[in-house]
């Protein structure tokens, strides 16, 4: 029988502690749970982080993703071990700890660093191995829709599902992506950046669960969607886009309007965000907050104005 979640966290913490002690003879012991959700359980002991991946994680694909991270140390945080370990049916990986983005200082958010790292990742030579997995961004969006449908009825579900239906099949993970020659992160947001070595090392991308070949514009889609919904200031979006272009990122043209390339992925990330928000609200039995309502409203506009997200920001 699989251990209860609390037991799994305890055992994962013990694994992190053992790994940390093996790395250092003078470990300043201290443990913390960094994340505990369906996409993974992450714990820290001193300078070591352990992650228990979802139960349905494919071992071969995760191993390939770990190898890719190892081969791109200036862009992706390399793991401490090249293959995952096992813990009661869950695959576990180990990583060095890095300093995350401080959510209390939004003006210092490293948008330029994020864009530069993405451009460098997108410009790496296309992996030649047939074992390199597909970037899982569309699959994650589809999973959010599945969770929304399973959560139960809610008035906001209707515009979200209607907007989902306007997306092309590839963005709903119902058909192959149109371009799969670029190495992509698959789930870019500011929580996926850390400074390593801590506390002031260079910024690196973390979380390889969705890493693979695919449409590079997907990696720009979350900040693009936030900008289109009014959740990201125009100046921050301009800095992000300029840094990506300056580094030679291939997802958008070097100048001119980026939205023909970004529109579909930005719509998909808007729907994914709204679906998660509504599902969480239903589960918690609470109303949507202001930010959650704004992405639902964006979905409502998407269903009635197909060419682009109906926001002045996108014009």
Describe the overall structure.
- The protein is of the alpha+beta class.
- It has two domains: 5-97, Phosphorylase Kinase, domain 1 (2-Layer Sandwich), CATH 3.30.200; 106-314, Aminoglycoside phosphotransferase (APH), C-terminal lobe (Aminoglycoside 3'-phosphotransferase, Chain: A, domain 2).
- The chain is built from nine helices and ten strands.
- The protein has helices at 5-23, 59-71, 111-123, 137-151, 157-165, 221-228, 234-246, 259-284, 290-304; strands at 31-37, 40-45, 48-52, 85-87, 90-96, 99-100, 182-184, 193-195, 203-205, 212-214.
- It has a five-stranded antiparallel β-sheet with strand order 1-2-3-5-4, covered by helices on one side. Strands 6-8-9 form a three-stranded antiparallel β-sheet, covered by helices on one side. Strands 7-10 form a two-stranded antiparallel sheet.
- α5 packs across α9, α6 packs across α8 and α8 (259-284) crosses α9.
- The model is unreliable at 307-315 (pLDDT under 50).
Distance between the termini: 55 Å
Helix share, percent: 40-55%
Based on secondary structure, the structural category is alpha+beta
Q: Major sheet: size, sense and barrel closure?
A: 5 strands, antiparallel
Strand order of the largest sheet: 1-2-3-5-4
The H/E string reads HEEEHEEEHHHEEEEHHHH
Q: What is the CATH architecture term of the largest domain? A: Alpha-Beta Complex
Write the layout of secondary structure elements.
Layout: H1 5-23, E1 31-37, E2 40-45, E3 48-52, H2 59-71, E4 85-87, E5 90-96, E6 99-100, H3 111-123, H4 137-151, H5 157-165, E7 182-184, E8 193-195, E9 203-205, E10 212-214, H6 221-228, H7 234-246, H8 259-284, H9 290-304
Antiparallel strand pairs: 1-2, 2-3, 3-5, 4-5, 6-8, 7-10, 8-9
Helix pairs in contact: 3-7, 4-8, 5-8, 5-9, 6-8, 8-9
């Amino acid at each position: 029988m699989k251990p209860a979640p609390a037991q799994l966290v305890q055992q994962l913490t013990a694994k992190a502690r053992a790994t940390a002690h093996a790395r250092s003879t003078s470990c300043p012991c201290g443990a913390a749970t960094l994340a505990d959700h369906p996409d993974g359980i992450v714990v820290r002991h001193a300078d070591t982080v352990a992650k228990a991946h979802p139960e349905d994680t494919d071992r071969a694909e995760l191993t390939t993703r770990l190898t890719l991270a190892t081969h791109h140390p200036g862009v992706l945080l390399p793991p401490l071990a090249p293959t995952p370990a096992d813990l009661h049916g869950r695959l576990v990986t180990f990583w060095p700890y890095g300093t995350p983005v401080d959510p209390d200082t939004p003006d210092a958010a490293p948008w330029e660093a994020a864009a530069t790292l993405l451009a460098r990742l997108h410009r790496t030579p296309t992996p030649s191995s047939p074992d390199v997995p597909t970037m899982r961004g569309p699959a994650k969006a589809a999973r959010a829709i599945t969770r929304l449908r399973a959560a139960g009825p809610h008035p906001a579900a209707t515009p979200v599902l209607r907007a989902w239906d306007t997306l092309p099949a590839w963005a709903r993970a119902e058909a192959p992506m149109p371009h799969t020659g670029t190495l992509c992160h698959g789930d870019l947001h500011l929580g996926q950046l850390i400074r390593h070595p801590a506390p002031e090392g260079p910024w690196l991308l973390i979380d390889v669960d969705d890493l693979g070949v695919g449409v590079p514009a997907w990696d720009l889609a979350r900040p693009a969607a936030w900008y289109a919904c009014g959740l990201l200031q125009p100046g921050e979006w301009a800095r992000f886009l300029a840094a990506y272009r300056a580094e030679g990122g291939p997802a958008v043209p070097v100048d001119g309007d980026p939205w023909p390339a970004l529109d579909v992925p930005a719509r998909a990330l808007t729907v994914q965000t709204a679906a998660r928000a509504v599902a969480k609200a239903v589960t918690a039995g609470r109303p949507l907050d202001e930010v959650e309502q704004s992405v639902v409203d964006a979905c409502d506009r998407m269903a009635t104005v197909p060419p682009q997200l109906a926001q002045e920001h996108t014009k």
